[in-house]
Inverse folding.
């Protein structure tokens, strides 16, 4: 008599979203919302520091301002998307992965741009470098939060529950 054991794993995933656009001010009270607002403000302050200096035309300032403005617009648009639940309406788009890649790239770009700005002897560039380093920390922290969310299988807005069920069956057969 021979016995065979067969194991089947059934994974059920349930995603619950509300597919309509609505304003929800509660997002700005969450940690990701606060981090996103801080990054938007730091981008803007760094940009203003460079732009209002007499030497804003220098390549170091132009590079810093490019990083700051692209970060400002991306983070600002994502903030609006979260406030109005656009990410929830289009939950099939991997928003968290997109933000993860962006935040990692911007943390590295801010490290580079701030280091270049800090190496000059211009006070406005050095002030911008301080805000750039703070933005680098903000984007790094946001990347860490996004990494944890992606790894746990979350979606940007709404909820996703995963149920894993294992079934085991033993079959006995007669052999002659």
């Amino acid at each position: 008599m021979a016995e065979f054991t067969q194991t089947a794993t059934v994974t059920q995933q349930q995603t619950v979203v509300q597919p309509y656009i609505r304003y929800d001010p509660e997002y700005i009270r969450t940690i990701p919302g606060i981090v996103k607002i801080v990054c938007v403000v730091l981008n803007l302050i760094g940009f203003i520091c460079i732009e209002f200096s007499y030497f804003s035309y220098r390549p170091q300032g132009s590079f810093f301002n490019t990083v700051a403005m692209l970060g400002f617009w991306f983070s600002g648009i994502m903030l609006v998307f979260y406030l109005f639940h656009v990410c929830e309406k289009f939950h099939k788009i991997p928003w968290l992965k997109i933000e993860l890649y962006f935040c990692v790239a911007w943390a590295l770009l801010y490290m580079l741009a701030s280091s270049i700005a800090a190496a000059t002897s211009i006070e406005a560039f050095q002030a911008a470098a301080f805000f750039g380093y703070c933005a680098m920390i903000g984007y790094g922290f946001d990347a860490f939060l996004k990494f944890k969310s992606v790894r746990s299988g979350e979606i940007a807005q709404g909820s996703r529950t995963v149920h894993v069920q294992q079934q085991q069956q033993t079959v006995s057969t007669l052999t002659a």
Q: What stands out?
A: The radius of gyration is 24 Å. The helical segments are 31-51, 59-83, 86-89, 95-118, 123-151. The longest strand covers residues 2-16.
